[in-house]
Design goal:
The structure is a single chain. The chain starts with a helix and ends in a 6-residue tail after the last helix. Helix 4 crosses helix 10. The longest helix has 32 residues. The mean pLDDT is 81. It is mainly alpha-helical. It has one domain. The chain contains 11 helices and no strands.
Length: 270
Amino acid sequence: MNAAGVIAAFVRRDFLAEKSYRLSFALGALATLANLAVFYFIGKLFGGGLAPQLEPFGTGYFAYVFTAMAFFGYIGTGAGSYAGRLRLEQTQGTLEATLSTPLGVPALLLSMSAWNFLFATFELLVYALAGAFIFKLDLGAANWWSAGLVFLLSAGCFAALGILSSCFVMLFKRGNPLAWILNNFEGLLGGVYFPVAVLPGWLIAVSNLLPVTYAVRAFQLAVHKGAGPAMIKGDLLALAAFDLLLIPASVWLFGRAVRRARRAGTLGEY
């Protein structure tokens, strides 16, 4: 079986596993709508209080947080896919068999995340439909070319962060400091739930070290103000720099982590 066939087999396996948990899927969709409703009513009550910080984006609070959550939920798939998949393979006792497939490291990583990204695309469509038909959001000013460019650069960057996170799982099984940081601080410091300008100066300095800050800001400007690539050039260059640094480093480090686990004979442990 060639690489494409192996990747398709991974996707089919993950689809069948997801299909067997229909109730979990339905509850997850309801939880997403409930979370959006919470922010909708918060926007109704307090949205005006953030007007000065929201002015650069040309939108209200709910439209801002809705767009950011949909975007962050998609690009965050890369950050969580690899470590979660590896941990699942470890606990099921299938990691060694998975790593024995005739794939190089890049193709193996693609196989492990392919279904997650397909499912995230479906969730993004649900977000879009909810925004259009339930919450009546108007995104007529969006520059979708710029938004797509931000998507592409951000997805690569967050996938690299996810691969780096999976290295900790490969080597230490439990205890993943990078995943802890990604889960607990990126949304808080990266401008997902409120503009970064709300933060005190020292936290703004910290947020400027995170790729999510540039990704969310550029995406918001592209969607709500119709910003072209020239207007968000600084954020695009920052994301491109993160990609150039993180993508090759993460793939190389993952290969090193796999080889070290094989030499130590710990692939079958969890």
